[in-house]
Amino acid sequence: MQSDTRPSLILKLENVGPLKQFQIEIKHGINIIRAPNASGKTSLVRGLASMFSNQVPPSHLLSLDEVYGKITVQFDEKTYVKKLRRTSSGSVVASGTMLPFSDSRAFDACVAMAETSVVHKIAGGGTVFREYLEILSYGKYYSTIISAAQELINDISRELAGPSFERFESIPLLVTELTNLYLRREQVETKISNLKAGREDNVKDAIKKKQETEVKLIEEENGLSILKTELHREEEKMKQLKEFLELTDDSAKVAARLRESIASSKKKHKELHKAIAKKSKHVAYLKEEVARLEKECEEKLSLESEELKALEEEAKRIDEAINLKEEAIQQAEKVPEYDPKYGGQLVVEIRKDLANRIEWLNKVVDYYQDKYMRRMASAKLRFNRNINRAFKELMLKGFENIFLDQDFRLNIIRENGVHQPIETLSASEKLTVSLMLMLAAKETFLPDFPFFVLDELTLSYDAARFRQILNYVQRRVPYIVVTALTSEEKGEPTVTYES
Amino acid sequence: MSQTRSENTSEEVPYIEKFEPQAIGILRKNAENKEKVKELLEKYAERYSAELNS
User: Fold this and answer.
1) What's the CATH code of the domain at A193?
2) Which of A153, A346, A360, A370 to mutate to test the interface with B (most CBs of B within 10 A)?
3) Whole-complex ipTM
């Protein structure tokens, strides 16, 4: 045990619970604070605990009918002050300084009262102490970092699947559609090219045929004209012969000769008429043929130009569609401008950046999961060792072993080897188990913390058992605060000391 | 610790030695302040990505 040179601690409370103005000296050793019910014992303990742990809510400290309160501690020639203030919304806020050895975990390991987590948990039949050990061993810090990193990974993953990047997913489809459009345009261009070449050949043939027919027509028309001229000459000749015949009187021979010539001329005349009729018929046929060829040529040209026009229009439509697709791909490659975080940036770059971030966060998760597992395994091993030591030293009757198993579940084994569920323990047994866990926690995780508080536990034990517990604590802790109920009806807490 | 998962040592996790004291400092002040830890993680994740891309 330490020497008695350790300083005293002066605790002053103003408007804390029912204590309007209260001061107490806590000395090295056992401090037994006695008071009747509702006189402020628990408020005193809370006030003291709030100076070394931030686990005491300010609303549990300030008197219900007050707006301001104050806790002052004088220790080792220094003063520490915590101010309490009720806000307009009714909540209570605290500000000020804490004791130099303050540790948020001390409330869970060194203050045995009904609202302390272990006491509360065991009283309610709770069996799993993973979170308790997480807090005490700082494994909780690692699990919080892991949880924060995993949340960020999920946030980033959700972001990548969100609306800002949705359009990017359509790029493969757009590229396929664009490729199809390029292929179609190539096909149309080939068709146009072929059509243009074929059109020139077809037109050339049609014109040639028409020209040949026209040449034939001209030849035939010339032939007809010659025949007609010849006919005219024959008609003139026959007319002259007829006139000669009228002028010839008695010359029978001449007349006969003339009549013969006229007959011959008539015959030729007839033949010429026949030839002209035939030629005229052929000329008419050729004219019709020329007209038909001309029409055929025009129709062919017209038909081909319609097809060409349709193809050229299709090529134009494809070009427009290609432009639209290329524009859509360019847009899909960028996050929409309206996006407040990534607006206008290239999706591929953002994705790369986010993937890098996830990579680092995954490394962090792996690193702390490993660290957490090792920390928790070590914490449990040391904690079980200290439970066992406390259990043996306190010589608890009826128990064989108390320990946390691999799932951090509390196991209580009776002397006969039977496992006893926590909820079946008596109230004082539950309190004893709670105390053992807290003493083991203090020894494991806060071995140098100078305070241990036992709030109203005297009622649960007989004097001998309580003394045994006090002795156990006193061997390990310099300052022990014990509250106990008195039989008086009224009065402020009073303190007696045992060194 | 799982036998199949690859274990990252502090050398394999860039910035972890700078990150850890800051994160633990935040949680010592307020064990519930996960949001502040997330901000810190974001800062180092961003730095890691920037370094990879540079």
Assistant:
1) 1.10.287
2) A360
3) 0.89
